Amino acid sequence: MRLKNQAVPYFDIIKRLENLETNDKETREFLSKVVQVISNMQDIQDEAKEGINKIGFVK
Description:
By secondary structure, the chain is mainly alpha-helical. It has helices at residues 2-6, 10-19, 25-50. α2 packs antiparallel against α3. The radius of gyration is 16 Å and the shape is elongated.
């Protein structure tokens, strides 16, 4: 499960959502909120990766 979560291409999801076209104001606002949440998830994942020490030899 953990490996699957790391492989999620958030940038691809955000790009696809931003490219959706709709004339409905409510739908546009909802999609905007979804993009914000996904961006926050990416930020959290990036911060978590910074604190991970890799296993192996140090050069």
